[in-house]
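Quick sanity check, DUF1772-domain-containing protein:
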Amino acid sequence: MADRVQIEGSLLIKLAQLVGIAGGALVTAISGGASFMLVPALKAGPASVLVRQWRVAYGIGARSAPPISIVTSLAWAYLASKARHHPATPSGPFTFYTLAAVLGPAIVPYTLVVMKSTNGRLSELAAAADKASEKVQEKEATQLIEKWKWLNAVRGVSVFSALMCGAYAIVTWPEIAIWAA
């Protein structure tokens, strides 16, 4: 019976590690792709199309990235709880899993606070573009989308940092999967 519990516990830890790595990689790719693939493509068209397409892409990202980040963060937090009493150094696996659990979902308040004015103005321009009577200024739209690209890249760095902290803990202390089970 004890062996079965240990195997099941070990499988849960491996699953949490997999979710942490996969979720972190996915959100990092979404963010990087939006900044460095989507934005240049959007800038190839007229401002009225740029802001409307940005609004669609932003909506998709806003509905998908935060939930993935939260699930990923829960996986890292679970691993931190299992590593808490590991006999490694105090700055060992618990610290790195905890950092991973905190850095990933930090994209949500960052978006709501730091990116609010840029996102708001781009949304206003998209609403103006929906009305045939209002013209969207090319220079303003291009400057805003360029600013958004770099603000979004910072979000990606936060998620990538979480991924690297979690991955570091996994490869540096692989015995957690056996020890904590």
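Posting the structure with no commentary besides this: The two ends are 13 Å apart (CA to CA).
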